[in-house]
Amino acid sequence: MFEIFGIPSQALFGQLLLGLINGSFYALLSLGLAVIFGMLNIINFTHGAQYMMGAFAAYLLLHHLGIGYWEALVVAPIVIGATGVVIERLFLQHLRKLDPLYGLLLTFGLALVIEGLFRNYYGSSGLPYQVPEALQGGRNLGFMFLPNYRAWVIVLSLAVCFATWFAIERTRLGSYLRAATENPVLVRAFGINVPRMVTLTYGFGVGLAALAGVMAAPIYNVSPQMGSDLIIVVFAVVVIGGMGSIMGAIFTGFALGIVEGLTKVFYPEASNTVIFVIMAIVLLIRPAGLFGRGA
Amino acid sequence: MKILHRLAFAAAAVMCSMVAAQAQDDDVVKIGVLNDMSGLYSDISGQGSVAAAKLAVEDFNPAAHGMKVEVVSGDHQNKPDVGANLARQWYDVDHVDVIVDVPTSSVALAISEITREKNKVFLGSGPATSDLTGPKCSPNTIQWTYDTWMLANGTGKAVVQTGGDTWFFLTADYAFGQALERDTTKVVVANGGKVLGSVRHPLNTSDFSSFLLQAQTSKAKIIGLANAGGDTINAIKQGAEFGITAGGQHFAGLLVFINDVEALGLKTAQGLVLTETWYWDMTDANRAFTKRWQVAAGRPGKFPSMVPAGVYSSVINYLKAVAALKSDNDGRAVVAKMKEMPTDDALYGKGSIRADGRKIHDAFLFEVKKPEESKYPGDDYKLRATIPAAEAFRPLKDGNCPLVGG
């Protein structure tokens, strides 16, 4: 086995694979954020709390209704997406004409309230949630031991990211949405119900966050602060990728997951700041982000 | 308009003078419970510690001693600057006489220094770093419940002596993790083991996969977790996923609380060896306290760790010393009195406080039960060994504490 910068190649490939897995969470979450911001011009700070609610939904579905992981993958995003629709109808629709900063403040406040409620009720140590039977165990790839569940995470998130991108960029519904973002009045003139489309899009973005939450429940600690730990990194990912760009969010999510993975090998103490350093550099060179379309 | 301005100015001036005119001393003993109310350590301490302090005041019965006692609380968010600001405000403006709890060693070190400066009292039930009774010892500080040396000597020694002679550390990259790694390394080496490597992770990490992979590559028999709370839970949970145990390696949870075991579930946590100084199910007094605590803290079905128990114990003994001195003004005098009087309370029984500020009591080596061995909720531990008080803590002469002669 050869060595790269003093690290055996085996260990390096293993870390790259792990970085890819983390990147899939970043990609899924930043996709939801990018959809919501790109289409609706709302900076959705509640995204982390909605991710957390997805994980809690999976736990609650299992413990109170006996609904397992596979069904929770479908049920939880729908349920949490519905709460997203409620939030949009109650609060966000009134802020549409204002500066995006108001949306940011509102969603930030909502995130604090939701997190506080869950922490008050469930405590902060977290709740146990097992990896589903079919995905337990793993295989030894030679350079590392890959748990089956982590492989599943990469596969599912790639599939969902691709499907979302395809739906927005290549289908008719997606084109209505993109048109409505640019010129809602004209699109309404064509008879398309723009407000309903916007509401459902927000619900979809929230559902994506909840899906990430269900996927995270078996491997990360299901606790009320799981969202706030992750959301700030995801925002950095979205900013680097470019706030409105779907492909940018997906690509940057995976890329930054890999960069973080490499940092954990060479200088682990910096692993939770390296993404912000990159964000600062990118903003200096390309303020609109790597794939951004400009303010 | 001008009259309005003048009135406003006059009102402001009056209000300022009211603040300045407050007396230096008052006849209320004010206890400040400072800990993590919202983050990864909030289950171990948090509102549970506040409830424990209030139960202690209730049991002390201030009225019978002619005293008035008040309990306030605050959130340091695991940040030394936030904790330090709150402590200064409490000491300078709010007349708080003693700060208790303070998990998160970096915050505790800051609080200890501020307490020394203001001549108040700091009863650290939460912090782990053995430096608080070592090079950073203070005549105003008592470290109550546990410390990193005791954990290393308890769990570390037991693990090495049962065959775990090669170690790899997963360390939380701040004062506590580094102190725990340092103390445990000494114990491992002294007992014939070897440390093959270590990796430092940021506090409050959710994904340990990369660090676990490094631990696996090292082929060490024992992966020492020099972290606590949410970090420990995540590491153990993900370790199960990555087949750590199947590959022949074992985790040594150097600081594990009952709340962590409950969060992991017995299926994942079984077999874990840990050291605590108090377990809710050990005596009738402990069980009775737990019932009251569950109501007072609003946490039915949850169990107190040794940290709230330590808060209870430290507050009761503090109040006894203040009652004996008939004054809470001079922090050093109260601490000196506490070191002079033997300690006695329902939870920790009889004990004492050393010259370096270390409270002494027995430590217990527990093993987490298998799911089938647990008969009721909270029945998580079986006792493996009792480490008597004389051996459980670092010898007085080894601490490099300036307060101890020589």
How would you summarize what this structure contains?
The complex is a heterodimer of chains A (about 300) and B (about 400). With about 300 residues, chain A is mostly helical.
Summarize the structure in words.
The complex is a heterodimer of chains A (295) and B (406). By secondary structure, chain A is mainly α. Chain A has a domain at 21-120 and 150-225. Helices cover 71% and strands 3% of the residues of chain A. In chain A, the strands form two sheets. In chain A, strands 1-2 form a two-stranded antiparallel ribbon. In chain A, strands 3-4 form a two-stranded antiparallel ribbon. In chain A, strand 3 and strand 4 form a beta hairpin. Chain A is globular and about 65 Å long. Chain B has two domains: 28-146 and 283-360, Rossmann fold (3-Layer(aba) Sandwich); 149-276 and 363-392, Rossmann fold, CATH 3.40.50.2300. Chain B has 14 helices and 15 strands. Chain B has helices at 2-20, 46-60, 80-92, 105-118, 148-161, 175-190, 209-218, 230-241, 258-264, 266-269, 284-296, 306-325, 331-340, 389-392; strands at residues 28-35, 68-75, 98-101, 121-124, 141-143, 166-172, 194-201, 222-226, 250-253, 273-276, 343-345, 349-353, 359-360, 363-368, 381-387. In chain B, strands 2-1-3-4-5 form a five-stranded parallel sheet, sandwiched between helices. In chain B, helix 2 crosses helix 11 (284-296) and helix 2 packs parallel to helix 12. The relative contact order of chain B is 0.14. Residues 19-24 of chain B have low confidence and may be disordered. The chains are: A mainly alpha (295), B alpha/beta (406). At the A-B interface, helix 1, helix 9 and helix 10 of A face strand 7, helix 7, helix 8 and helix 9 of B.
